[in-house]
Amino acid sequence: MNAGEPERLHPTVMAMIVTRDFQDGFAVNLGVGLPLECANAMPAGREILLHSELGLLGFGPVISDHTKADPYVTMVGNLPVEALPGMVFLSHDESFAMIRGKHLDVCVLGGLQVDVEGNLANTQFEGKPAGNLGGAPDLAYGAKRTVVMMHHTTHDGTPKVVTRCTLPLTAPRCVSRLVTDVGVFDIAGGRIVLREFAPGWDPERIQRITAAPLEIAADLHEVTLIETALM
Amino acid sequence: MSGPPSIPSRRGRSHRLINKVVATFDEAVADMQDGATIHFGGFASPFNTPSYLVAAVARRGVTGLTAISTSMGRGVKHRDSQSPWLPPELRPLDFFDVALMAELGQLKKGITTFAVGARHDLIYPFEERLTEGSVEVEVLGQGSLAERIRCARAGIAAFYTPVGPGTDVANGKEVRDFDGVPHVLETALHADFALIRAWKADRYGNLIFRGPRSFNETMAGAARITIAEVDEVVPLGDLKPEQIHTAGIYVQRVVVRPSAPVTSWEVPQ
Questions:
Q1: A117 has catalytic annotation
Q2: ipTM greater than 0.90, yes or no?
């Protein structure tokens, strides 16, 4: 974050923006890192089936009081979650058959780089001798929509939204919606369209910390928690 | 537990009833040799990792191992970073993962989806070995890893998956289009041993699991010898056909976890 720039969105708010568009009956997978915030930011009153790679479908929020947690019922990140009626346990191969077979509506993944083609790199930090692919390649391919939730720049201010990913790709052409701490973007047809901006931000400021040309949506507006159509 | 009795058959030869329960973890891995390929079950939690089998492999001291595991683990040094939601005094100390093999220099190669710590400042034993150049690694996505293991169990030699083309994972592999979508050919991943964690077993080796079944169910039967570490062995018939997750035919050995935690991997079990 640069001195003098407007405040960025808190991860809880980013999560509420991601989840506002989830519909009743959606099956949703949350990746490790920032996306896990979504588990506790589900829109009230909607029945959404959360999926976790290790073989869990239909769980509830993360439990913070360990005396109420069942240590055997954890999602990725080894966090205990609420057991909801209708929850199902699976094996790993079945869990990924579900993903690859396109039975999930949305996956929310973290990102290191996203580019104009919707390519996603989120598995290898520079300077590490190998990567961490996890379930991301299958999720990015298999989910009907891939939403990336990430900070707009790295800790040292380097843009993460770029014209072409330079880090190893997790999956090609998969990202359709991008929620960062400065705005909401749709990605399609080789274009990144800014739809919503964080309070205090404007298209020029956002473009300045973005290493790809941004197009501006006709109905550009400040971020809202009112649902929109997920691409 | 003593084995079931020998009974005379109708032809007069005595025969033994099926009993896959072995008395100790050390006995369960006594025939593991240097250079073995091993499936390590679980998913990075003390509650689904076959910790006592991992400790037995450490005591056995075999080297040159190829470890197949969704994560290369954190190791004893970083054990406290597991289950951070539990107060420190409640975190299980009888937790050993595949990183113990890396710490002890027993590994030749890892086949995995999480090779390193997820942050710059998190450096686990396997990453140290990678940096010093003493181990090899193959990193692939979790769905392909799971399906390669499932295929080993199911007798399928290879499969085409749409996940991988356009990324480094597809390098050097056959890519073929189906309905206009590129698929990469992935091969079955067999092992000598599969070490898995389950909840209850009977003497046939039938298993039920507690919580998400993760790689524990997937790896059962994907090796020449599958060993299940369980909380409890129950009399045959107590596990109902409707309940059983893994048929005993996939399981060669069953060992029961100690009732009180043993916090050092060096203590014979």
A1: no
A2: yes
